[in-house]
Design a protein that fits this description.
single chain, about 60 residues, mainly alpha
Amino acid sequence: MDTNKLKQIGLSYFRAAAAVAAGLYMSGQHDPKMLVNAFIAGLVGPILKALDSSAKEFGKGSTN
């Protein structure tokens, strides 16, 4: 896997996790531990996509 694709995957994971943490922060939750937990929870979706054999972009079924 080339460096550019790894960067794309990392950014995809980061965006998903940051969106979850930002949503929690905007709803009034400012406890750092809760925000870190939300960030980690935001990684679940991309990880599940990576494990999905039918995901063509980054999953196990990826042709690149």
